[in-house]
Task: inverse folding
């Protein structure tokens, strides 16, 4: 599928958010950066925002800065037991699930379950969480990807998902962000096939100044990104706009939202394109099957009787 873009005539910002009174939004990694900014904006227009965070103390401190209805629950995406515990404790409707949390360009590390940290956190953790919570989701799932899915000729290395050979922080991060887009593609296909009205979207913030870049493995890269954050990046409030747009606007299933500026680095949210590697339905299905095998979490919805 060729890359395509859809440009808007009118610039969209948070002042265009609809009233979300009575709606519940779960945001992973809501204690800082884009997650916190998005949570604040959603709470201000009436949503009840659940901060799904690894550190409860930091989550509560962050939630205290938000004007509106909030709740803090523990979730460690690098630990599938924690993901299951979070889902097991859930019984209420979720109108929007925002898979925002992520790690970026880390030194080689493993999750509690033995997966490469970036793939395990950014993709597998959210894959498991989404499937476990999907019976409660009423409107949409928004998953954060990145322009990093375009880096080089990145593919999903099915024969070595943990990148035990040739690991680099950059390669691992790019693979995880490609996985986020393929997950969204297959999630939407399955939702449609199941007759569900829930929609799956992806979004990316462009180049936004957050603390995500501060954990890069290479000190030179950290220094370079710190300078970039200071002089070139847009503020996290602007970086959160694609997430907010995807969380509230009526869009086609599997839409991908990013900034409309040069190189999708900054600007107002709009529909953006993705690489052919991120648009391959066969690869998306294979990744889903492998992810089910790795996490032990399977598709929770049944097809309508007429389709079985």
Result:
């Amino acid at each position: 599928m060729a890359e395509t873009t859809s440009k808007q005539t009118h610039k969209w910002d948070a002042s265009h958010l609809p009233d979300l009174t009575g709606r519940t939004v779960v945001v992973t990694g809501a204690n800082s950066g884009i997650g916190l900014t998005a949570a604040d904006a959603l709470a201000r227009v009436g949503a009840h925002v659940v901060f799904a965070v690894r550190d409860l103390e930091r989550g509560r401190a962050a939630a205290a800065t938000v004007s509106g209805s909030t709740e803090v629950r523990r979730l460690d995406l690098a630990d599938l037991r924690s993901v299951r515990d979070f889902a097991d404790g859930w019984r209420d409707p979720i109108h929007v699930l925002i898979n925002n949390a992520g790690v970026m360009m880390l030194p080689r590390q493993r999750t509690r379950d033995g997966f490469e940290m970036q793939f395990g956190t950014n993709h597998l953790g959210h894959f498991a969480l989404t499937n476990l919570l999907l019976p409660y989701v009423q409107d949409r799932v928004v998953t954060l990807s990145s322009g990093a899915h375009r880096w080089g000729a990145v593919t999903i290395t099915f024969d070595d998902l943990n990148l035990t050979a040739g690991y680099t922080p950059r390669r691992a991060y790019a693979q995880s962000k490609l996985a986020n887009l393929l997950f969204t593609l297959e999630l939407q296909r399955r939702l449609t096939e199941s007759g569900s009205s829930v929609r799956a979207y992806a979004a990316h913030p462009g180049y936004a100044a957050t603390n995500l870049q501060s954990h890069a493995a290479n000190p030179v890269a950290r220094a370079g990104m710190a300078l970039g954050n200071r002089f070139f990046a847009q503020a996290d409030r602007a970086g959160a706009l694609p997430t907010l747009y995807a969380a509230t606007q009526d869009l086609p299933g599997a839409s991908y939202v990013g900034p409309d500026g040069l190189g999708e680095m900054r600007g107002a949210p709009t529909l953006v394109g993705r690489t052919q590697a991120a648009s391959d339905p066969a690869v998306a299905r294979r990744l889903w099957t492998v992810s089910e095998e790795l996490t032990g979490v399977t598709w929770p919805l049944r097809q309508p009787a007429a389709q079985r």
Residues 1-8, 222-231 have pLDDT under 50 and may be disordered. The beta strands are 24-28, 48-53, 69-74, 94-99, 137-144, 199-203, 256-259, 269-271.
